[in-house]
Design a protein that fits this description.
With 745 residues, this protein is of the alpha/beta class. It is built from 30 helices and 23 strands.
Length: 745
């Protein structure tokens, strides 16, 4: 082997030759890309990705005699010159394997790889500009670049969302192989690479075990829930239907069923049986809210406990910060190496439109998966067209099945004209899993809805609530929840719930509420939308402030949930101060009001009503105005700009560590650690249970009560410590006006 090295010495004390690294990465990259038939393309990308290390300038980097040396562009140039158009996607992946995928039009890539200026656009010196010498050094070491390759990128290159997903998937296979091989080199203690333990994909034996456990778990729940016979019959029918439909070919599906009908476990049964039928590799559950992930993860872990050695269910979202004694989970989350993944909509979709390796590494493991979306109606409207195109492509090219599960199925088919503006070859046309003959919604009618005329003051609402023994009120704004709760003036059995309360506080209050409901005690709950998903509460009466139809339906799902009475009462009212948290939220509410005026028989449980509502709502949106800059970036193949602009949540706000009285000891310990700049994974994992998210504008009063948290380098974070314990109430949580704009849940 020529004396060119890719990496310095690891535990073994020996350096790694370039040819060793290229061969090792190529071996894994082709396996990672095989599920969609791109193994040869991934192989040549891997062989070329570090060709620039066959140079004296890069050897000086290893000897710490040089910095800012670009060794990626030379490899990209080799691919483009040798394979022309067939090498384009691989060239983009290779060029970006350290700094991220760059702007990707043919002209821009050609301009960048000319290397005629001697320095890259980031002012890095090229490791080698004579690419023929790089190829000769590779050949001398026994490496061979094939004469020709095929690339399916040529089939989609004029379809921007699909083309960019193709590059990201190839980029994922390359970068994950690169990370794993590099890690294995530095971990080895002899000549053999020391790889981390790889998890098993789903297999038939695994699936059979999980299904057996799942069905046993469902039987156990039947006995514990004590639901009405009608409700239990409905749940049984849905489960049987999902198991029957699992033999359908892979594709895009909807699972439309009423709240409380057992959708989650029926969806899991469908996914497992479908994966067995089509030999799919993993299940990926995508949830809209972090606050329901812990609950679902616990349910899954209860079902699949001890099914397989290693990690079977892996959570991956922004608040999962793994302490140092759980490094294995941290590593697995980097590339989703587990049979069942539970993640958030934010993490899943932003990864699909990312350009950096840390975000994209996992993408190749999405191929040949069942991807299940719970509460599909929470997709941001302006991101729906590109998101639906990407999901369609995951099904068509990468062998996935997609399932949208909700009681309020959005009419995404009405967005096909918008989809056509970004993709001439994509049509959203899902198949419904639930047979209409089951008439689930008609059978599950558990509530009577009253639309209260006129506006209602919180004073009047508080008076009315005094006549109920058990009742839930859901309002649109945190501020409204506090105002109404305070009108109850310390009433026995009255509770407040919102995300102004930290997770530990909310969980404690929920336990109290569940206990009072179970023992038929007085219980009046004033809440924001935080109870409308993933919270299993059952009230005889629910009041809901006027809002979007899907929110009304979700609220109704907390009324007579288990069918223990003939009909529960849902009363929809308009607060005297009619304000909404976002413009889209207001538009959706206005559309619902119009429908109420126009339609005589308005049934919130009728899927046709929900479909009509979404069609009307989507027709009011101006996509060009809402997402003009994102769409422009997509059409320009500007990968960095797409990543910047594709944001599921526009503003993450700040995190406030709060002094919840039941956990004051932990609060003081966390505050002291923060002041000592001991912010690490373990700290974050504990702090999230005592944190409140706030959307505070510049100059907000809240900053008068906060101490900023800095990291070990002295840089400001988005964490703060609440100093005044009186500003965190046992009744309502964080009790400060935090924003010029009202906030929800």
């Amino acid at each position: 082997m020529t004396e060119y090295f890719a990496h310095s010495a690891g535990k073994s004390g020996r350096k790694e030759y370039v040819i060793e690294h290229l061969t090792e990465v190529a071996k894994h990259a082709q396996v990672f890309a095989a599920p969609w038939g791109a193994e040869s393309e991934a192989y040549v990308a891997a062989l070329a990705h570090d060709l620039g290390k066959y140079s004296q300038r890069f050897q000086q980097v290893l000897e710490k005699q040089a910095t800012r040396i670009d060794h990626a562009t030379p490899g990209a140039k080799v691919l483009l010159e040798k394979y022309k158009n067939a090498g384009f996607a691989a060239a983009l992946a290779v060029e970006g394997h350290h700094e991220g995928i760059k702007r990707g039009s043919p002209k821009e890539l050609l301009d960048r790889i000319r290397m005629d200026k001697g320095f890259s656009e980031t002012q890095s010196e090229y490791s080698e500009r004579d690419i023929q010498s790089l190829i000769e050094r590779l050949l001398r070491d026994g490496g061979i670049l094939p004469d020709h390759i095929e690339s399916s990128y040529l089939d989609v290159h004029k379809d921007p969302v699909r083309a960019q997903l193709y590059v990201r998937m190839l980029f994922s296979a390359l970068t994950d192989a690169d990370f794993l091989a590099t890690e294995a080199h530095f971990n080895r203690t002899n000549d053999e690479y020391e790889y981390r333990k790889m998890q098993n994909d789903l297999n038939e034996a695994m699936i059979d075990k999980v299904l057996d456990r799942l069905l046993s778990h469902i039987e156990k729940i039947k006995k514990e829930k004590k639901s009405s016979s009608e409700m239990q019959s409905l749940r049984d029918d849905l489960l049987e239907n999902c198991l029957k439909k699992a033999s359908l070919p892979t594709g895009v599906f909807t699972l439309t069923a009423p709240t409380g009908s057992g959708k989650t476990f029926s969806m899991l049964a469908f996914a497992l049986t479908h994966a067995k039928e089509h030999r799919l590799r993993r299940l990926i559950f995508v949830l809209p809210y972090i606050n329901i992930i812990d609950q679902m993860a616990k349910q899954f872990k209860d079902v699949v406990n001890q099914v397989d050695e290693g990690v079977f269910v892996l959570e991956d979202h922004s608040l999962v910060e793994i302490a140092s004694d759980s490094d294995e989970l941290k590593y697995l989350a980097e590339n989703w190496d587990a049979p069942i993944i539970i993640t958030t909509s934010v993490r899943f979709f932003e990864s699909l439109f990312a350009n950096r390796s840390n975000d994209c590494r996992k993408l190749h493991n999405i191929a040949k998966s069942v991807i299940l979306f719970d509460e599909a109606q929470t997709m941001p409207s302006h991101l729906a067209p590109p998101s639906l195109i990407a999901l369609s492509e995951l099904v068509d090219r990468y062998g996935c099945t997609v399932v949208f599960s909700t009681a309020t199925q959005p009419a995404f088919t009405s967005l096909n004209p918008e989809i056509a503006k970004l993709s001439a070859n994509t049509v959203w046309k899902p198949t419904e899993i639930v047979d209409p003959e089951l008439k689930l919604f008609q059978r599950s009618k558990k509530v009577d809805v009253e639309w209260i005329d006129g506006s209602v003051s919180f004073e009047k609402m508080a008076e009315e609530l005094s006549s109920h023994k058990q009742c839930l009120v859901i309002v649109n704004l945190r501020r409204h929840a506090k105002e109404l709760f305070k009108k109850l003036d310390g009433k026995e059995g009255a509770y407040h719930l919102s995300t102004d309360m930290c997770p530990s506080h909310r969980l404690a209050v929920l336990r109290e509420i569940e206990n009072r409901l179970r023992h038929e005690k007085e219980c009046i709950v004033i809440s924001t939308q935080c109870v409308e998903a993933g919270v299993d509460l059952d009230f005889p009466v629910v009041y809901r402030a006027m809002g979007p139809l899907d929110s009304i339906v979700q609220a109704a799902g907390r009324c007579n949930r288990n069918g223990r009475q003939d009909l529960g009462k849902v009363k929809v009212f308009v607060p005297t101060e009619e304000k909404y948290p976002t413009t889209d939220y207001r538009k959706a509410t206005v559309e619902l009001k119009r429908m109420l005026l126009e339609l005589v028989d308005f049934d919130i449980s009728d899927p046709k009503t929900i479909e009509e509502y979404y069609k009307r709502y989507f027709s009011t949106l101006n996509y060009e105005a809402m997402a003009d800059e994102l769409y422009s970036a997509i059409k320009s193949y500007d990968y960095p700009d797409v990543a910047r602009r594709f944001k599921w949540i526009a503003d993450q706000g700040i995190n406030v560590l709060v002094p919840y009285k039941q956990c004051l000891k932990e609060y003081y310990q966390l505050a002291e650690a923060a002041r000592s700049k001991q912010i690490n994974a373990k700290w974050l994992k504990s702090a999230r249970l005592l944190s409140v998210g706030a959307y505070a504008y510049k100059g907000s009063d809240i900053y008068n009560y906060l101490e900023p948290v800095v990291d070990r380098h002295g840089a400001y974070t988005n964490w703060f410590i609440l100093l005044d314990e009186s500003k965190y109430s046992e009744q309502v949580g964080l009790d400060i006006v935090v924003s010029l704009e009202d906030t929800i849940a």
